[in-house]
Every structure is written in C-alpha cells, then in structure tokens.
Amino acid sequence: MADLQQFAPKNDTITVELPLENDDGTPMTIEVYAPYSKEYKSVVHEQANSRIKKMQKNRKDYLTAEELYQAQLDLYVKITIDWDITWQGKKPKFKRDLAYEIYEGVFWVKDKIQEALDESVDFTSP
After folding, report:
1. Domain ranges for the chain
2. Residue 73 belongs to what H/E stretch?
C-alpha cells in the first residue's frame, strides 16, 4: 500500500549537474530552488504581478517575445542559490550579474536548468 507522504518532496532545492568537470575533477553544478519551493513561487508571483500591473495600465499592451525571454532569464538567475563552476579559469562565487552573463553566453546552461526543473516535479518514484 502506498503512503501519500512518501511522495512529498524531500528538498526545496535541486542540484543541476553540467556535463563538464572543474579542473579539480569535481562536476560543475548549479544549485537552484525547485518549482514547488516558496522562493521559486515568489519569483513567479513577482513576475506575474508585474505583467498584470502592466496590462491594467493599458489593456492593449502586450508582452513582446523579448520580454518573455528576459522574464525566463530573470527566473533562472533569481532561483539560483549557488554554483560550483569554472569560469575564465577561476571558480567564482555566485553573483547574479555573473549568472546573467553566463546564462546568456552559454545558452545551453539554461536548458540544463530547465531539464532539472522539469524532472524535479516528477517525484512519484520514492
């Protein structure tokens, strides 16, 4: 018999493993908040409220593709907690401005984050 509690998430964070290693042989990883965490939801609510406010000011206003792209990039940066990566030959501490640079410049990192987010909501295997 299954117990519903065993299917509840055990952690509010996800470790995204990139297919690369640091110079010391450790995997490059990025730690992000999971979609069901209060921190993730806070960012999503902030973005939605901003869009609602914009649309209330001008009913004919709409979101552009560029705004949607920026919102997604903002989401990835704002849900990032920390990382263990090598960038320009160093292991930098996490900083939002650097995250924007990396996520924009190394486009596939965003895809890896999204894959991990998608997989995290399938916690039906205890």
Report:
1. 14-120
2. helix 65-79
Quote the tokens at residue 52: 């609602």
- Per-residue tokens: 121: 């909501």
φ, ψ of residue 14 in degrees (nearest 5): -130, 140
The alpha carbon torsion through 61, 63, 65, 71 (nearest 10 deg) reads 150
Count CB atoms within 10 A of the CB of residue 76: 20
CA-to-CA distance for 56 and 1, rounded, in angstroms?
A: 50
pTM of the shown model: 0.88
* Phi, psi (degrees; rounded to nearest 5) at 106: -110, 75
Q: Which residue has the higher pLDDT, 122 or 116?
A: 116
Q: Rounded to the nearest 5°, which phi and psi values hold at 21?
A: -115, 150
Find the largest Cα–Cα distance for the chain: 54
Residue pair 72/63 in contact (Cβ under 8 Å)? The answer is: no
Q: What is the C-alpha to C-alpha distance for residues 33 and 15, in angstroms, rounded to an integer?
A: 9
